[in-house]
Amino acid sequence: MQRTSSAGCRDVDAPASHEDDRALVDRLLRGDAIAWEDFVTRFGRIVRSRVADVAVAFGHGNDDDAVDDATADVFAVILANDAAALQAYEGRSSLVTYLAVVATRCATRGFARKRIDGSGNEQEDSLDSAASGDDEPVRRIIRKEQQQRLLETLAELPEKQQQVVRLFHLESQSYAEISKRLNMPIGSIGVTLRRAEERLRKNLEPDTFDSS
Question: 107 near 93, Cβ under 8 Å?
């Protein structure tokens, strides 16, 4: 059961549906001050956590000031251009997943622009350099966000589609093996798989947000 505060905001620990997330974003876009307090309370921790992960990858793991500054930059980007980042949220994933992706991208760009060279001096750098092999930790963070979003989207599929996708793509089962395990006609497996893949592709399309 969801719990609400006296101000009408959902408790931070209560589960939220995508519809709830979309409603919160709509309130934020209308300039609702209470909604903003709810937003920061619920999502401030996850945003800072993702920024801290990126900070570690760039050698700033012990620099709390750098993490705090980068976290503030993420929220500034979220509100920039009439809250374009929030306007881009379409509710196809949970708001926490969407914000985790936004925070990772923003922090990666921010730390990539100012790296520390061997002498301890800051130097400008490009995002391409941040994605190169010497920044594998950053790529792992981004892959983690993508995997979380995939699993979340997969869980929204009908149960039969979930089973077929998991067996075919994650367990490398053949159509014949899937047919036997799920007691499905072998001729229906391809159709089920294609429908599931189409829905996954649609739901996993990147939200039209760019923090640059």
Answer: no
Report residue 149 as tokens: 């979003």
Locate tokens 């760019």: which residue? 210
Residue entry with tokens 């067996």: 167
Q: What is the pLDDT of residues 137-195, one digit of tens each?
A: 555 655 666 666 777 778 888 999 989 988 888 788 888 899 999 999 988 988 998 88
What CA–CA distance (Å, rounded) separates 81 from 126? 23
Residue found under tokens 């130097």? 123
**Would the pTM of this model clear 0.85, i.e. be above it?**
no
Token pair 């159709």 is at which residue? 191
Distance between CA atoms of residues 63 and 65, nearest Å: 5
* Whole-Å CA distances, 75 to 20, 36, 197, 210: 20, 11, 34, 14
Please say whether the beta carbons of 27 and 35 come within 8 A: yes
What is the set of domains in the chain, with CATH numbers? 1-145 (no CATH), 157-212 (1.10.10.10)
3-state secondary structure 71-124: HHHHHHHHHHHHHHHHHCCCCCCCHHHHHHHHHHHHHHHHHHHEEECCCCCEEE
Neighbours of 178 (CB within 10 A): 20
Question: Which of the 8 DSSP states describes residue 207?
Answer: P
